[in-house]
Amino acid sequence: MMAIAAAKRSKPHPDLRPCHPGEILREIILPVVDRPLGEVAKALGITQKHLSDLVSERAALSPELAIRLEAAFGRTAPAWLRMQETYDLWHARRAIDISRIPRFKPAA
């Protein structure tokens, strides 16, 4: 049989909001874990409010918390951080007007 080539990553549609890491925790991971939020927060070494703010998408994911999530749930810390970065950039592109910023070209 022929080997299947690695799948190309398609560009996400620019109008589709990327997932916040808290959404993944809230919708996918925490229901499977089926433990009270306070218990999960304590195991992660953070406050329940901190975890609640993250899953409510009121707080951003820090590198320190990404490492804790990696240890607890298995997805890598860089993957958690990429998710947060993608989410932040998507929102920043919509919030910042770049129409008057000139494109600089290298000096001849």
Secondary-structure map:
Blueprint: H1 21-33, H2 37-44, H3 48-55, H4 63-73, H5 77-95
Features:
0% strand; elongated; mainly alpha; 5 helices; 108 residues
How do you describe this structure in short?
The chain is mainly α. It is 55% helix and 0% strand.
Largest sheet: none
> What proportion of the residues is helical, as a percent range?
40-55%
| Unreliable spans | none
The dominant shape is elongated
Helix and strand element order: HHHHH
Q: Determine the structural class based on helices, strands and strand pairing.
A: mainly alpha
Average pLDDT taken over every residue: 91
The Cα radius of gyration reads 18 Å
* Strand content bin: under 5%
List how many beta strands DSSP finds.
0
- Per DSSP, the total helix count is 5
**Cα distance spanning the termini:** 54 Å
Describe this structure in words.
It is built from five helices and no strands. Helix 1 (21-33) packs across helix 3. The protein has helices spanning 21-33, 37-44, 48-55, 63-73, 77-95. The longest helix is centred in the C-terminal third of the chain and has 19 residues, at 77-95. With 108 residues, the protein is an all-alpha fold. The chain is elongated.
